[in-house]
Design a protein that fits this description.
By secondary structure, the chain is an alpha+beta fold. The protein folds into three domains: about 100 residues, no CATH class; about 220 residues, no CATH class; about 70 residues, OB fold (Dihydrolipoamide Acetyltransferase, E2P), CATH 2.40.50. It is about 35% helix and about 15% strand. The strands form five sheets. The protein has a five-stranded antiparallel beta sheet with strand order 13-12-11-14-15. Strands 6-9-1-10 form a four-stranded antiparallel beta sheet, with helices on both faces. Strands 2-3 form a two-stranded antiparallel ribbon. It is elongated, with a radius of gyration of 27 Å.
């Protein structure tokens, strides 16, 4: 694992740095050197005076106060302790403090996100509507990406450099949409008949010269996303669509930390431990191992841009069969056919596939922002004021019984989870709902103790918590 190499003139206060720099190069626990880890192992095995002092300190002062004291160089010198960055690693107290330093977003971070999106929109405006297509979306669950990147907190995160801000790579967007299109074309989802059968070779191009000249069949999938040749076939074909990187417009003023908890690590790692009964088989006495990872909070906005190389597309579909669709031909609304197909693929991906990491357990789920939501403005007329309660009443509301409640201190949001679904109340709504609860229940939720309740939910938004009568 690399070691943080921060010049002394930068000091130790990196609160103004980008989230990517705080999470990466400036994180104070990039200290996994051999001499440090072996020293730490020896301390733990021997239960040294220093370890005993720390245990007593935690019991006497609590977690947060212990973290503060271990960050105080003078205190560490007086008690012959090593400072926090040297002594504690990974998911221990240093990691908890590291999260507090990583998740906040400054006003400069928010301004940079908006500026990057504005730059993309200005560039997109240079293309005609038939060439560049975009869709606005909002994530209804936490979004994570780049978890496989090496990091001392066990799970990394993908940041866009040199800005150090979260992003969804265009290659990741293309992979998800291509997979969605493959499922639709295979007929797995009859609700999207426009895609059915489009995985068959309906077009063709000629490659090679002379005796080596041959025709290659292309499906709509190959034309739009590119042809990946089978082994031994060198004839790859570039697709007509280009997918831009997506810069999330993050809801609130902080990123969000999520927890996954493998319950039988002794079984997965095939090791015997006394605390797990010296058995490598899975059983309920295995020790849970909470692992924190970074996410973009629900409610954040995503703007997808797709650009079509129409000249290249025209070449690929020039030789087509009778039943093959003309992907450049305008539909009834004047938009070319390829845009309608891509729109259906996005709709399927939003609902069933998700974007980024951990999508199989619900992360990265999104919903398209409707035209009304994008263009609506506050109304002041009497008629619109009278109609507003009716519009609110028409919004479907669900009751989730036994939903698990969590409070995110970083962005002041209140979160409810039930059967893999997530509803969130962002600040200031989250704080308002929390403050309306009885004191004991509120304190349990704020401390993230295990609390379940019946909640009202509307389209991924936590509306209220119902108290038993």
């Amino acid at each position: 694992m690399p070691i943080a190499a921060v010049p002394a003139y930068l000091g130790q206060n990196f609160s103004a740095a980008s989230p990517g720099m705080r999470f990466g190069m400036y994180l104070p626990i990039w200290t996994n050197r051999h001499d440090q880890t072996s020293e730490l192992d020896e301390r733990r095995k021997a239960q040294s005076r220093e370890g005993e002092h720390l245990r007593q300190l935690i019991e006497r002062e609590g977690d947060e106060r212990t973290i503060s004291l271990l960050c105080d160089e003078q205190y560490c010198r007086e008690h012959k302790l090593k400072s926090l960055p040297r002594l504690w690693t990974k998911n221990e107290f240093a990691a908890r403090k590291a999260w507090d330093e990583v998740v906040p977003l400054t006003s400069q971070d928010k301004d940079t996100m908006r500026a990057l999106l504005q730059r993309q929109q200005e560039l997109a405006s240079l293309f005609s509507p038939a060439i560049c297509w975009k869709i606005q979306a909002q994530c209804v669950a936490p979004f994570a990406t780049g978890l496989g990147n090496e990091h001392p907190l066990e799970n990394g995160f993908a940041f866009l450099w040199p800005y150090g801000l979260p992003y969804l790579p265009g290659s990741g967007v293309k992979g998800v949409i291509k997979r969605a299109a493959q499922e639709l074309a295979a007929g797995m989802w009859p609700k999207h008949p426009a895609w059915q059968g489009l995985d068959q070779p309906l077009y063709g191009i000629e490659v090679g010269r002379g005796a080596n000249k041959k025709r290659i069949g292309l499906s709509v999938l190959d034309v739009l996303f590119g042809r990946e040749p089978p082994p031994g076939d060198p004839n790859a074909v570039r697709g007509a669509l280009a997918f831009w990187d997506v810069i999330p417009q993050i809801a609130g003023d902080a990123l969000m930390v999520e927890i996954m908890t493998p319950h039988q690590s002794h079984y997965y790692q095939d090791k015997r431990e006394a605390k797990s009964g010296n058995s490598t088989s899975p059983h309920d006495s295995g020790q849970p191992n909470p692992i924190a990872f970074l996410t973009v909070p629900p409610g954040s906005g995503f703007c997808f841009h797709i650009v079509c190389d129409t000249a290249h597309l025209a070449r690929l579909i020039a030789q087509r069969e009778t039943a093959a669709p003309d992907l450049l031909a305008p539909a009834d609304d004047g938009r070319p056919s390829w845009q309608h197909l891509v729109e259906e693929a996005f709709a399927h991906a939003f609902q069933w596939l998700g974007f980024g990491a951990k999508t199989t357990v619900g992360y990265g789920a999104m919903k398209a922002a409707g035209a009304a939501a994008e263009t609506s403005q506050p109304e002041t007329s009497a008629d619109s004021a009278a109609a507003q309660p009716q519009a609110q009443a028409a919004t479907p509301t669900e009751l989730w019984q036994g939903a698990e409640l969590k409070f995110n201190r970083a962005n002041k949001s209140l979160i409810a989870k039930k059967n893999g679904k997530t509803a969130i109340a962002l600040a200031p709504r989250g704080e308002a709902i929390l403050s309306s609860l009885p004191g004991e229940l509120r304190r349990k939720i704020e401390a993230n103790q295990f609390v379940r309740a019946t909640v009202q939910v509307s389209e991924g938004t936590l509306i209220a918590i119902e108290l038993p009568s």
